[in-house]
Write a structure and sequence with these properties.
Number of helices: 6
Helix content: 25-40%
Structural class: alpha/beta
Distance between the termini: 56 Å
Strand order of the largest sheet: 2-11-10-5-7-8-3-4
Largest sheet: 8 strands, mixed
Strand content: 25-35%
Radius of gyration: 16 Å
Order of helices and strands: HEHEEEEHEEHEHEEEHE
Amino acid sequence: MGNIALVISFLFFAGCGKSLPVTKLNPIQREQALAFPLAELNGEIETTDGNIIQVSADRQKPLVLVFASDSCAVCTAEARALVAHLNEMSASDLANVDYYTVLIGAYPEDLSAWIRRLDVSWTAGTQEGDSMFEKFCPEKLTPCIITFDPAFQRLTKFLGETPIEKLQQQTGAWTYVPKEI
């Protein structure tokens, strides 16, 4: 009986958009303008090589911040879609947008395995205590995507599957870093 309660609480506290009814949310619940003071967009992401990325509203480039789980099927599909998009553009990363994936509740070795398995070329990391995830995604559903457009000082949140085109609408047209040959 204890194992069943553990599984149910895990799904409640760290649910994947595929296993929980994100698709049943109406469009306003799935895409929300956030009413946080911009100073709340503040945190650190630790990459697999130990670098610390500062995330804040004090930035020139638009931001896409994806909170994902390595066990979430929708998160995996979205990462694969971005890998395919970058490959289609003969690119290794975005030039004019900071695109970061934060693997929720993951150990560094889990993050490294996820990056290798999906052939991720953009910045991915973890966050101690998952404080930004808890602040911006109290529903505890993944993927939870935060976009920030510094030109309009606008924070937007997306829950569940979100097409690349929708992210581009929030951050402007993307330019690319060419792949090294």
